[in-house]
Amino acid sequence: MKLKMNFKSTAFALLAAGVAVSIPRAAHADRRAFGFTYEYNTMPEGGVDLELWNTQSRAAWDGGPSTLGWKMEVEYGITDHWDLAVYQSFGQVHTSDGAGDTGLGYEETSVESRYRIGERGEYPVDVLLYLEIAKGFGTGLGDIEPKLIVAKDLGRLSVNANLIGEIELTRDNGEVEAELVPGWSLGAAYEINPNWKIGAETFGEYEDSSAIAQVGPSISWAPSDKLWIAGTLAAGVTDAADDVTGRFIIGLGL
Fold first, then answer.
1. Max alpha carbon distance in the chain (Å)?
2. Is 11 helix (H, G, I), strand (E, B) or coil?
3. What is the pLDDT of residues 123-134, one digit of tens each?
4. Rounded to an integer, what distance in angstroms lies between the CA atom of residue 206 and that of residue 217?
5. Residue 7: its pLDDT value, please?
6. What is the pLDDT of residues 64-88, one digit of tens each?
7. How far apart are CA 225 and CA 31, in angstroms?
8. CB 47 within 8 A of CB 26
9. CA-based nearest residue to 149, from 161, 139, 141, 157
10. For the chain, domain boundaries
11. What does pTM read for this prediction?
């Protein structure tokens, strides 16, 4: 079984990126250096970005399902320190025998907000507060995911850590139950020049008494202030993790 790109979603993302390069805008894009780790960034006041996410994973090289996650996100800067985003998420599963295959389908709607404390370099470490609320399709329940994001710039090197406390809400016999799923990500990126950043990150969570952890290299390219592309290709380092996961994100300034 091969890890396959979803042609339609990938082609649409690349087409949108090409169109957006020609669209003028006043504010700089919320550029990212990693596929998974969040940094000390928010949208500038009045800025609007469109982000297209493509995440693919393979459970095992010798078998198991491959999954695709596709997300479209719109971000808006309320102030220079506080932004708001809304995104729609879709998913697809492919299995070697076809028995568990699903088409690309809608999964959830999420609302995300970020707030930066202070200015970059004002304190010993930069701190950002993050909150996401997700509503799953076909259910009255969802997830609540707060993050504490801390970062430190050391010249051209940026080190970023995310502490995550996802709360999963489920219904059992008419009663709502909440489960805490702790997670983390840690990434370091080096700016080669204003257009290119390279780095590495690790990310994961602890669920059902199992640690799910992955690690891999990242790369980010920003050919203009209207467009950036970031990606990570990670390998599983624990038994419960997928063998490989890849994500690329295209950011378009509107």
1. 56
2. helix
3. 999 999 999 999
4. 22
5. 43
6. 899 999 999 999 999 999 999 999 9
7. 9
8. yes
9. 161
10. 7-253
11. 0.86
